[in-house]
Design brief:
About 40% of the residues lie in helices and about 15% in strands. It has helices at about 5-20, 50-55, 80-85, 95-100, 110-115, 130-140, 140-145, 150-160, 165-190, 195-210, 270-290, 295-315, 320-325, 355-360, 395-405, 450-455; strands at about 25-30, 35, 40, 60-65, 70-75, 105, 120, 215, 220, 240-245, 250, 260-265, 385-390, 390-395, 425, 430-435, 440. The chain has a five-stranded mixed β-sheet with strand order 6-5-4-1-7, with helices on both faces. The protein has a three-stranded antiparallel β-sheet with strand order 9-10-12, with helices on one face. The protein has a three-stranded antiparallel β-sheet with strand order 13-16-17, with helices on one face. β4 and β5 (about 70-75) form a beta hairpin. α9 runs antiparallel to α10, α11 (about 270-290) packs antiparallel against α12 and α12 (about 295-315) crosses α13. It is globular. Bound molecules: glycine and manganese (II) ion. Manganese (II) ion binds near residues 340, 389 and 429.
């Protein structure tokens, strides 16, 4: 299945028309991007907002919602015989509009003239060629296009895409089934002597075999303290931990985002086990705290307090927990946010502006190291899907810097950190739906108890 029922797209567009009230909304689809030359491209990924309102996962299309006339128009051209020879039969434009309940189709060459004099709204664009495309279409400079996106449209699209429909939840469950298969296979594949690249290859293979692909660059590393480590050349050794932040996206482009941290030896060391259990406690308690009306910032701070309390028990931190967290001392060990929205994008709608998605007038972004990286902070609402992903890391460069600066020496026991210099990091992550009364972890259970990830 690559499209929902046409009524879904019609209802989504109608809701957006109602929210916008007037104007013409232009959604440029993505185009093929060259890997090294025009004919050898990266795997194609459709623009997520285009997918949301117009569904079709092929390049060369633009979606128009003409709010003023209550119409949806798909812009594009029927495949020429030369195209069909190389890429096979394609849906005609008439068939395409039928499948998504749109009203009309229009040849690409007619769009610029049709838009003349109209009140045009579009979202922020990230591909350079879409910026050039809009510039040509609207007779503007690329700088004008970059500055000219419509904040009304940004707000309306975020409000809509933030609340997942049942058809979307089903897709995200499917993404997590594939992701479950990935992590099960990973745990079976870990043995000392293998390269990280081997494990990443397993993940890619399982995703592909299930007609999916990875939703983002896999983090599959024995150096889990490098938060977005995208290198895979290290060899797994006894005593290492392998942090795998790996999620699949479905054929319909819905994402899963799951982190598990595995021992390379069959069992964790005592030191690793203590930190593992602490991260798991933070993860599970923070999941329990997810419910409508709670600010995600407050759940992030709850994670920080749990981590601080646990590190105090281990003798690595000291002092009053609340004061330590308020000051930001925990961020030496937990320097990122607790999580983010997820959906058609792994960091859902981040292309529309992280602050526009995760913050509002009531909840503004902290400037403090660590909490400043929190992508979602505002009050939760039913239908949001988000990640809960606390972690504890020992980053030698950061420890050395803060120690040299004497930073938070009331709270951090620097003299106890030497045995942890090569600890690396542990993160555990699940994807959670906010329900009317509380929350639901999406997908099949992906083993995370220490006894389950140990072999
Ligand atoms: N999956 C990587 C991240 O959430 O940043
Ligand atoms: Mn994540």
């Amino acid at each position: 299945m690559i499209l929902f029922d046409s009524t879904i797209y019609t209802a989504r567009r109608n809701a957006l028309m109602k929210a916008m009230g007037k104007g013409v909304l232009v959604f440029p689809g993505a185009t093929e991007q060259p890997f090294n030359y025009k004919g050898n491209t990266y795997p194609f990924r459709q623009d997520s907002s285009f997918l949301y309102y117009f569904g079709h996962p092929q390049p060369g299309l633009t979606g128009i919602i003409d709010v003023d006339n209550g119409k949806a128009i798909l812009v594009g051209d029927d495949a020429a015989i030369e195209d069909i020879v190389w890429i096979g039969p394609q849906l005609t434009m008439a068939e395409r509009i039928h499948h998504i309940g749109a009203d009309e189709h229009m040849p690409s060459a007619d769009l610029a003239a049709w838009l003349k004099g109209k009140e045009v709204h579009y979202l922020p664009q990230h591909h350079a060629d879409r910026i050039f495309y809009l510039a040509e279409l609207l007779g503007k400079s690329t700088d004008e296009v970059k500055a000219g996106h419509s904040m009304n449209l940004v707000r309306a699209v975020i409000a809509q895409r933030s609340h997942k429909g049942s058809e979307e939840i089903e897709q995200m469950e499917h993404a997590l089934h594939i992701t479950h298969a990935i992590h099960s296979q990973i745990n079976k594949s870990i043995t000392p002597g293998k390269l990280e690249a081997h494990i990443r290859g397993v993940a890619e293979g399982v995703a592909f075999a299930n007609q999916g692909r990875l939703a983002y660059q896999a983090i599959c590393t024995v150096n889990g303290h490098t938060l977005h480590n995208n290198h895979y050349h290290r060899t797994l050794k006894h005593g290492d931990m392998l942090l795998c932040d790996i999620g699949a996206e479905t054929m319909m482009s819905y994402a899963g985002d799951i982190t598990r941290s595995y021992p390379v030896s069959p069992k964790f060391s005592t030191q690793q086990a203590e930190i593992y259990d602490l991260v798991l406690k933070a993860e599970m308690e923070c999941i329990e705290a997810v419910k409508p009306g709670v600010r995600y910032l407050d759940i992030h701070l709850q994670a920080a307090r749990i981590i601080t309390d646990g590190l105090k028990d281990l003798g690595l931190m000291q002092g009053d927990t609340e004061e330590a967290v308020q000051a930001g001392a925990h961020a030496l060990f937990f320097p990122h946010g607790l999580g983010h929205m997820i959906g058609l994008d792994v960091h859902d709608m981040e292309g529309l502006g992280e602050d526009n998605v995760g913050y509002d007038a009531e909840t503004t972004r902290s400037k403090q190291f660590g909490t400043a990286y929190l992508r979602l902070a505002k009050k939760l609402e039913p239908g949001f899907v988000l990640t809960v992903e606390p972690g504890i890391y020992f980053i030698p460069e950061l420890i050395d810097l803060w120690q040299k600066e004497g930073k938070f020496s009331d709270f951090i026991c620097y003299n106890k950190l030497d045995p942890y210099r090569h600890f690396t990091g542990i993160r555990i992550e699940d994807n959670v739906l906010v329900t009317e009364k509380g929350q639901q972890i999406l997908g099949p259970e992906i083993e995370k108890l220490r006894s389950e990830v140990e072999r």
